[in-house]
Amino acid sequence: MLLSDNHRHCFLLTGSIHDVLSDFFRLSKHLSTPLIYAHDVSQYNALNHSIFHNSDVRTCSFKQARQELGSTHDAILVDLTHGVSASALAILAGTVRGNGVFAIALPKGDWLSVVDLDLPRYLPWPYESHQIESSFKRFLLDQLHRDSSPFQTLASDQIHPLPALPLMESLTTLTEEQTEAQSCLFEEHAKSYVLIAPRGRGKSTLLGDSLAKMLKAGKKVALTAPNQDAIKTLKARFEQVLKEVDLDSELPFFAPDALLANPAHWDTLFVDEAAMIPVPLLMALNQKAEHSLFSTTDYGYEGAGKGFGIRFCRYLAAQSTPNNMPFLTLTLSMPIRWGGNDPLEHWINECFFLAPNQNVVLNEADTPSIPQTYKVIANNAWLDRPDLLARTFQLLVSAHYQTSPDNLRWILDDPSVSAYLSLQGSAVRCVAIMTAEGQLPDALSLAVLQGTRRPRGHLIPQSLLAHEGIEDAGRYRYWRISRIATHQSEQNKGLASQLLDQIEIAAQEQCDFLSTSFAATPDVVGFWLKNGFIPVRLGTTKDQASGCYSLMMVKPLNEIARQKTAIWHQDYRANLAINLPRDYQDIDAHLARMLSADFLEAKPLTGAVTDKDKQDLALFVNHHRPYLTIRAQLTRLVNTQLARHQLSHSHAHFSLLNTVITQPAHEIDFVAFGLKTKKHVEKHLKSIVGELLLTKF
């Protein structure tokens, strides 16, 4: 029956795939286009084809779940039998409309003993799924069966078809909240607007409605989003409003990079799912229009909303706008896709700690009797402290732009992960997530060095091997600080540095290096430098989420590690001296100075080719060393041979070599040299560099 409060129907379906599919089809018999998600949908497809013949059903793997952002569905089945994706579960639950069906499939019997095929992506080498007793699955099962869970478990003979849902009205009136937000936008009192709301609150409807009305009013408007799949609802509303006013126009959609390349300037630019776009790109988009609206969720499924809100809104507030306020925040709180106080929404938010942070931070000045303490906790120990898990994960969600529901599984199930907490009473003031890496067998290290193996995890040693050619990097023990977060009200008090001190004390006898890898911005680089970390590698491409280059830093904990760090840092600086002005022109001067500084009083840089350069270039020629990681070494080789008259301008490939060592990597037109594909470029360069290496010098 239809629920008067417009809440979603939630079911646990158990049994064989045949039983689950039969029950789900019975439930959704009168509902349109049922959707099935699973780790592997091949058995569902085979059964449907041979037995059920349901032509309306669509099946997808968990990897495709992000494509559903912005969609609305009547009925969804998520099969967790052979694999669990927390992020997919959260995303899909947010797409089911009121009175629709959200069903989860589990096997009969002991689900915890079923090998999880989605688990390997959370495990570092050499761990395999069958070796791990998943703490996350135990946690999720408890959440599904707790008293407040909205999920009903029904036997097949208790399942009856739910009634058909009314058609979604073609042009519903905007709610009072939407109308107020739209009026504020139309008044143009601010240079930029940020529309923040949870899922299902009508953001897409508001954007589509506003776009159409602005276009009708003669405004020059544009829309961008990470992909067009995310704007289905927005587009539908846009087209409906134009039809209502008898106006014929295409949706003015541009991909973000295409919009930046377009010389036009708009009256208003709409950016949907803004938290999924790198912040530097958002900053550039903000300059393309007189007014901009950035729409995003404040928490939840993208795993980026809070970081977006903190970092990007700080930038917007600092804008210089003589005639307008810098920015205004618009909010929508009442759900539209489903009824208020929806049990499924509450369950998802509580299960994955996605609701706004409820962590209460104590003020030391007011509570001098409560001491600061430190705690280390990992894996199944979290299950005994659900309160601590909630506060810790909420802090990560609020402070780090890439924290997603999948990270909860990673923290609970990865045996290399530990959390270091700074506590005052029960309040989590600061958290650092640490992963233990390294001690790779020599044979595996050689395969990584040569580019023939990429074992899961072990980011620091793998990158030092594969990208820097450091032959013994796999032997050492690393503790990598993967995430570090301080509650916003507690920042700039030294809490994170104090926590790092505690980690260093614990690490002294257990590893050789503390390490970290992060999106390089001046404030973050400054933090790690202040804490004694030394740069050893700058990434060659920008991180998709942050829009920044990644920087890898280490802090040696013993004499051998200190000697190695000095060598690694010297090589890093020698390569950066060549690459920075050529390939990193978009890095600002302040950050460039920080990255280039000599922190160990190393030997002066000479620019001469070294034995290490020859080894790196040989790895490129004979194995799979990436081309972008040997550009500085190739530059030194070419310049050295030119200086010694071992290479001349009459060399058959001098023009190509000169182009490669002088032009930014992304600007080189290899087609001009008859090289049309990346594979062709690499093969040709390997041949040329191989010839240069044969010269004795």
Automatic annotation (TrEMBL):
Domain N-acetyltransferase residue range list: 379-558
Quick check: keyword Hydrolase in the entry? no
Residue ranges annotated as transmembrane are: none
Keywords from the UniProt entry:
Acyltransferase, ATP-binding, Cytoplasm, Nucleotide-binding, RNA-binding, Transferase, tRNA processing, tRNA-binding
**Biological-process GO terms, alphabetical:** rRNA acetylation involved in maturation of SSU-rRNA; tRNA acetylation; tRNA wobble cytosine modification
Residue sites binding ATP per the record: 178, 337
**Keyword flag tRNA-binding:** yes
Q: Known EC number(s)?
A: 2.3.1.193
Tell me the domain of life.
Answer: Bacteria
This entry carries the following GO cellular component terms, namely: cytoplasm
Q: List locations, semicolon-separated.
A: Cytoplasm
Q: Which Gene3D superfamilies does this entry report, sorted A to Z?
A: 3.40.50.11040, 3.40.630.30, P-loop containing nucleotide triphosphate hydrolases (3.40.50.300), tRNA(Met) cytidine acetyltransferase, tail domain (1.20.120.890)
Physiological role: Catalyzes the formation of N(4)-acetylcytidine (ac(4)C) at the wobble position of tRNA(Met), by using acetyl-CoA as an acetyl donor and ATP (or GTP).
What is the name listed in the Swiss-Prot or TrEMBL entry for this protein? tRNA(Met) cytidine acetyltransferase TmcA
Q: What does UniProt list as this organism's lineage?
A: Bacteria, Pseudomonadati, Pseudomonadota, Gammaproteobacteria, Oceanospirillales
